[in-house]
Amino acid sequence: MDPMAAIRDTFFQECEEQLSALEEGLLEMEDGNTSLDTVNAVFRAVHSIKGGAGAFKLTELVSFAHVFETCLDKIRSQTLQPDPDVIKLLLRSADILADLVTRCRQGTAIEKSLYEGLQAELENVVGGLADDQSAEDDFGSIDFTPTVIAVGGFESEPAEPTGMSEASGEAVGPVASIMFRPHSGLYAKANEPLVIIRELATLGKLACRTSFDLLPDIEAFDPAENYLSFEISIEGNPSYDDITSLFEFVEGDCDLKIEMLAGDDVAPAPADSPVLEAPVNDTMPTADDIIARVLGRQAGSEPTGEVIALPAGTSAVDERAEKPVEKAADRGTEKGPATKAIRVDLDRIDRLINLVGELVINQAMLSLRVSQSGAVVAANVGSSLEELERLTRDIQESVMAIRAQPVKSLFQRMSRIVREVADQTGKAVRLRTDGEATEIDKTVVDLLADPLTHMIRNAVDHGLEMPDRRREVGKPEEGTVRLSAAHKSGKVVITIADDGAGINRPKVLEIARRKGLVTETAQLSDNEIDNLLFLPGFSTATNVSSISGRGVGMDVVKRSIQSLGGRISIDSKPGHGSVFTMSLPLTLAVLDGIVVSVADQTYVVPLTAVVETLMPESGMLSSLGANGQAIRVRDRFLPVVDVGQVIGIRSEPADRNSCVAVLVETDGHGKSALIVDRIQDQRQVVIKSLETNYGPVEGVAAATILGDGRVAMILDVDTLIGRGSESTSSAQNMVYAKAS
Amino acid sequence: MTLSILTVDDSRTMRDMLRIALTSAGMNVQQAEDGVHGLEVLSGFRPNVIVTDINMPRMDGFGFIEAVRAQSAYNNVPILVLTTESGQALKDRARSSGATGWIVKPFEPEKLVSAIRRVAA
Amino acid sequence: MTSNSTPADIELIVFRLASIDYCVDIMQVREIRGWTPATPIPHAQHYMLGVINLRGTVLPIIDLADRFGLPPSQPNERNAIIVTEVKNQLVGLLVDSVSDIISIDRTEIQPTPEVAVGHSNRDFVTGVIGVEGRMVSLVSIEAIMPRHKAEAA
After folding, report:
1. Facing B77 at nearest CB: one of A14, A55, A190
2. CA distance, residue B90 to nearest chain A CA (Å)
3. CA distances (Å), A674 to each of A56, A57, A568, in order?
4. What is the ipTM of this complex?
5. CATH number reported for the structural domain that contains residue B60 in this entry
């Protein structure tokens, strides 16, 4: 990779890390930890971003980061109190900083409106940037004001003609006369007069005389002090700036007098030009320039003489901010997509996963063929097959692990959502996260972003009460939303809990009735009422707010979670808040399932839903209503779903004498029994999309390919039971709206 | 003579830039990620010049310079401070902690190299 | 419709369905393979035979006769499946047999005559071609795709 692009990549990668550290630190500060370490870490994060941004000439980013940094510096030096309002401002600034970084990375244009308002607020908090602005102004400036005496015509030293001024043919150029007396402090900082004199010699013909004039009497002699001074003259048109820059580091550690003496007829005349003006004409180098130069290439089309004029008191950054935006954009588009921590192209991993999937299927087919061949198989063939199976499984798991990602990045995005919604609603909210290191398939992480965002918005917008209301009921004004992730028996469980008012069940029921989602007379349990939220077309907000509204309901959330092979449930306590629990598969590539037969077809029931399987004895199954059935399991009656009927492959129910009941439990419908003809096996199957070439099928979650090479449907237990209860109007009272 | 340089900076971006700029100028470069790391590197490496950042975790640039100067073996090694700010106060502080000079970020490679040559004995 | 109309030879795969000749644009055909038993899709349209495993891909199969309103096929080993691809979506068409590959000029494609409305397949036929005195109907695969997928897209 081109080193320039590589460094740019490194920079943006670092930005991500810094942004994440920044947010983490600010959240700690919000929690009351304003220790110097934390504040320093936060400061450093912004400072680093600013530093790198300067090198890449990302002016908006530099400008905003600078004010942000100044503000943090004030907190660091304890001249600004990090009260909650300030921290809120800082958190919002961190969000905007992240936005700016993203835009710079993508090379998209940055509208001033994105950051100006917040920048002004920061400036306000900082109390004007009068003293700090200088820091930004003097990229490359030298705050160094030695005495300058310009004298016309010749004085003192007779200049010997040299052959150095070949260009102009002048006999003698201007001469610099320097008096330089180092102090002891100069040596203490490892500066070396000889080195300076050596460098001065590169500027022209140099003559140096060491003066012992200052040497005191022996009694007054301090061996640590320096008494030598140097009288130096340089011929050959030395530049005044070059001379002063060589003394830049020793300013304050020496007595220095530089006189520019004109040559024959040339007036160097630095006298009437204030010293400060000169160095300001420096070009601000960009990283691109730097690297281009280092690599011996042309420094792009940047005019080398780009002058940044800095009238005292104005900000250099604002000046520059106008121009280079398009350039930044150009650079951005040349670049490929951002490289993530996984340095392997995801497509390649996916291809590998697909291949491993094929391998798993093939291995299963091979085993099947061998066992079907009927021949007496040698023992070592059998054990080789077992070994192959084990290896295949190991390879598969290893490949899956490559795609695993911690949920941290996802959770961090949520903290921003919370802040935004809190701002919009005027609520005080604290997001607490737990289990950020929990890993889950990258696709799941990506696909979870939208539903999670929606639920977090809901939790703040609908879940939490307004601060005054919270005070009335004796809760802290600040509401809490907890977001946590954990591995639990082969699945990832993510919960979103708020300490708000809980679901307003009478209101939910009223709305559901008004919208015809439930019949007027239906008696619903609390849990059933809560689950009404997931019905399509349901929205609790009487006035659809811009925050949670957006035409997306919890039904969409539920469908997203289900499409990921997950489940979602609600638990709500009036006055104490609501908890949404999602359980998701670790990967979208394989699934453990029970392979069953129904009407000569093979289906797979995801193991996650299965509680137990049993052979119904006579009397356990009983008819319920017209064509409904119930099963008695340990004195409890559970609704029965005859898979063959519900899925529509046969009209008559399964044979009661030989069928098998698979007891399943789902969030939406509690426990039920799926009736199938026979159980074949319990095994891991490779998930194949049915939607790629066909489309969604109700009651079917996905497809798989079995050992015999045939496709089998993986059942979507939740919708299957929903359909079952709908068509048999079983024990459940809930009636979904239908055309009738 | 090949100059040996120790750079101390916590930013990978900066480290990469320093490394490319200095090695391209024919210098021998060793890199450290913060002050503590810098001192560790110094125990087995004697640079002609040290270039250090200020804001770093664990041990910042000021602490690092003071620690280097406190060792008699290194009190005459020139140290240049890398800084985004060149405010007078910051320079004064760098100087009072014993820095030889400073380089304002973002830097041009020529300036970096010339600043190093300017202080290297 | 295929609108890259210029100079325009077009290659067509001719197949037979209940003694009637049809054809599809060869550019939309990925492969032709023999019949294997399909797994039924719940709640699918009657003409969806189900899905088969095409080297790891789940491939839906349409009984084209059924789709055209002809008596449904009784698929057997001699039937062929034409695997087609339209808009990145693969679908297999069950036909009686594949008979020929022909190359014609696009201008030879004539509008579907009104008389051809004997079957309800006019929606799926975009034109007709005379080949050696026989009429071959050009089938639009887009039009025969299962409908709900189009809605979902």
Report:
1. A190
2. 9
3. 63, 65, 20
4. 0.85
5. 3.40.50.2300
